[in-house]
């Protein structure tokens, strides 16, 4: 990498607040830029949306990776940067409780996701709306009164309310039940195809960025906060990497759920 003067990363092109091809760039893209700058190399981004594209790529870092429970690979990881989970969001005037939702409630959820399966199992009479392109579209539908509730990632919700100051006062988010821990996990960066690049190299540069306040500054621009497990070396275990966030409403390619 140093000899070539180039750091290549894989990221999803439509996965804000983590990454985006246009402006804004996304928190993980800006972090990758800061890492490349610290290493005095240029940054190149390969835009992907599925695992097979990662295998065929030349990327050295994979952005937006989940540290899951069941190890299947020998991937190497940076420290935990964000905490991912799901929240159910409703307009503030409403006071629905997930344990006792009324029939015919209009619920926006990603088709084929773990949340979708749970809603089908426990709320068969709800009107599940799965035609939305992404979390931001679902949250906008709640704001517009088109649906009564949306189930989205906490990261998407934080980004949504960060963009418009009055959103926080109009929407209420509550944790989505996850007793099996299939949708709650730390997110970070995975390291691959870099014989001269080790976990310690990435950890060192990220720790320097954290000490300088750069990490906090970047994340705050997207309404995000650094994972409390950033300084926990064991947070990188167990070792399994997943694909980055995707846009498809039919499949959550972070978790494969």
Can you tag this structure with a few keywords?
single chain, 257 residues, alpha/beta, D-Maltodextrin-Binding Protein, domain 2, 2 domains, six-stranded mixed β-sheet, five-stranded mixed β-sheet, 13 strands, 23% strand, elongated, disordered C terminus
Please indicate the count of domains.
2
> What is the residue-averaged pLDDT?
83
Percent strand: 15-25%
The name of the CATH architecture of the largest domain is: 3-Layer(aba) Sandwich
**In this structure, how is the largest beta sheet organized?**
6 strands, mixed
Radius of gyration: 19 Å
Number of discrete helical segments: 8
Q: What is the string of SSEs from the N terminus onward?
A: EEEHEHEEEEEHEHEHHEEHH
**Globular, elongated, flat, extended or rod-shaped: what is the shape?**
elongated
Q: Poorly predicted ranges (pLDDT <50, ≥5 residues)?
A: 236-257
Class from helix and strand fractions: alpha/beta
């Amino acid at each position: 990498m140093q000899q070539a003067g180039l750091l290549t990363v894989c990221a999803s092109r439509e996965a804000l607040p983590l990454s985006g091809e246009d402006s804004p760039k996304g928190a993980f893209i800006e972090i990758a830029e800061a890492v490349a700058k610290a290493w005095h190399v240029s940054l190149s981004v390969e835009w992907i949306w599925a695992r097979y594209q990662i295998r065929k790529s030349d990327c050295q870092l994979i952005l937006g990776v989940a540290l899951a429970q069941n190890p299947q690979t020998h991937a190497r990881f940076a420290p935990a940067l964000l905490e991912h989970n799901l929240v159910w969001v409703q307009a503030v005037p409403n006071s629905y409780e997930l344990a006792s939702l009324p029939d015919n409630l209009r619920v926006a959820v990603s088709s084929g996701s773990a949340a979708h399966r749970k809603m089908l199992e426990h709320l068969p009479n709800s009107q599940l709306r799965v035609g939305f392109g992404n979390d931001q579209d679902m949250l906008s539908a709640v704001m517009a009164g088109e649906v009564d509730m949306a189930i989205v990632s906490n990261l998407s919700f934080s980004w949504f309310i960060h963009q418009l100051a009055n959103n926080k006062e109009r929407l209420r988010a509550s944790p989505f039940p996850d007793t099996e821990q299939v949708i709650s996990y730390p997110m970070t960066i995975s390291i691959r195809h870099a014989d001269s690049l080790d976990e310690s190299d990435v950890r060192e540069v990220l720790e320097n960025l954290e000490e300088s306040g750069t990490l906090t500054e970047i994340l705050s621009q997207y309404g995000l906060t650094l994972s409390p497990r950033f300084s926990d070396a064991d947070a990188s275990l167990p070792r399994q990497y997943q694909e980055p966030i995707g846009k498809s409403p039919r499949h959550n390619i972070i978790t494969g759920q």
